[in-house]
Amino acid sequence: MAKILFVNPGSAGHVNPTIAVVKELVKRGEEVVYYASDLYKDKLSETGAEIRTLPTEAMMSAFTHHENHHLFNVINGLLRTVDIIVPRILRETKNEHFDYMIHDSMFSCGYILAQKLNLPSVSSVSSFAHTKSTFDTFINHLTSTVNAEEIQQADETFEVLKNHVESTYNVIVPSRFEVMNNPGNINIAYVMKGFQINYDTFDPNDYKFVGPSVLKPNVSGFMDQIDTTRPVIYISLGTVFNQNATFFNHCFKALADIDASFVVSIGYRNQLEDFDMIPSNFTVAQYVPQTELLQHTALFLTHAGMNSTNEAMLMDVPMLAFPQSADQPVVAQQIEKLNIGRQLNTEDITPEQLKQTVLDMLAALPYYQQNIKKVKSVQSSDKTGYQLAVDHILNFRDQHLTQSNI
To answer: So what's the pLDDT on residue 402?
Structure first.
């Protein structure tokens, strides 16, 4: 048995894949102290870990200080969160012993904390993985899409923040790659090998693509209100970038006379009065038990968040992607490239185009489902993502710790 420091103060998309992992770690005898955003304490309460919280409002204020409208500013925002996250964890763990740490690949300051605490580390990757080489290529491409003056300003800010962090905490921040990706001694990605971009370029000793980390859903009774005698079509823009009344209204108008049962998750920031008339073949809810619903879903109209995409592939559900922000455009491109779905733009789609696309995809479901099976067939293990992740984590533990430590 070892004691793990788990640091993951990111959004739901970063937390959700780790829930099953933490449960499995505890089940196998590990002791876990999990630092998370104070928004997700309840979500993690049944994992068996000791949950400690970090202040969401302060972290988000620091993270969004530069408005984050391009990746250079996102990275500078991440550097600003160091002064919120690192001192608190160092102070609260000062008299504790941990054997190793697991940290989110983006929001954890994990690369810095591993240095300060002198701990071997595992990076928890909730989206596409990057090596230093692939990330640098990506960054170089971005320089052609961002104004030169903005890049210069972001570069100068990065150097100031980097120097502050290095001098304040006596650590090394080699480059933007370490700030954005927080590489560990090993990196656990909840992406299927067949879905990861350029999978064959990653060293299998360093990167473990375990696939979706999803617990078997409980039967909640939600499906009792859905007519499953006809195709079920699920519509969701996720939990973060979902305030798009125009898109939902397009769906209501375009799909009202299609013989299918539509389920729409609108989140808690949208209200029913924000929308036009809701047709009788639509069920609209602020919360939907997504993995339970996907087991009965024929087609998923999605924002292409990585968690939702993973869950859809796990359930063999083709996707019509409407990316909103963050990594979603890249995920949507991969969905289309692999022919497991299609993508459209919420900004310029018309109701007529939407209706025809949905009808075309319903007619071609076996084609998309077969391609999903091809993506899944690249996995070399029949274990669930969280079981495989914990296998790798415990193998890592045994390799890096002496028997006396565990």
So the answer is: 61
